[in-house]
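Lay summary. Proteins are chains of building blocks that fold into shapes, and those shapes determine what they do. In this project we predict the shape from the chain. Here is one chain we studied, written as its sequence of building blocks.
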Amino acid sequence: MFTYLNLNTFLGYRFFEQYHNSMPDTISHFEGKYLSLRQIDTWEFAHRPNAKGVVAIFALTPDRKVILVEQFRIPTQSHVIEICAGLVGDEPEHQQESLAECAQRELLEETGYTPGKMTHLLSSPSSAGMTDEITHLFLAENCLKTAQGGGVDGENITTHLIPFNELLQFLEKSNQDGILIDFKIHSCLGQMALIDRSKYFQKSE
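And here is the predicted shape, written in a compact code that computers can read:
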């Protein structure tokens, strides 16, 4: 038996909330604790019932080292090199956070670094054919180590500090070693190049 959901309830604080009045009702095929399987018309997709989106942070130290994280991801059954990321609004105590505040907190929890400056780079569908989730990408500059990091609830996160000009070689070597590379790294690099290539892509002296 399918459960029909009112679209206002389904969308909540979604990136495209302004369009909800013109969209059809949604069918729920399965409601899990963290994920749901939904359908609009003939299209099935995944939905996070307890989150408002995702933040991801491309972080740089004052000496231009990129802060990356590595962890074992159960769905891919492999280690993945990523930028720091986390869900928005998935915990009651953080419901009122702005996107930037959520991004700063996630960076501190996972890596132990506090940014000196935060810049919103881009908001984009995580995978438009599979989920309604929106990922908000941030650039964190002048990050300083202020805490231990490592994540929460057994995330077991390893932090890598990679000189900006050695990033490509590091990612290629990691991939050759069987570690997957998250595409959000490249999305941030692409947007940074569009914003100000001369600032972010300096040549080594």
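What the prediction tells us: The longest strand covers residues 65-73.
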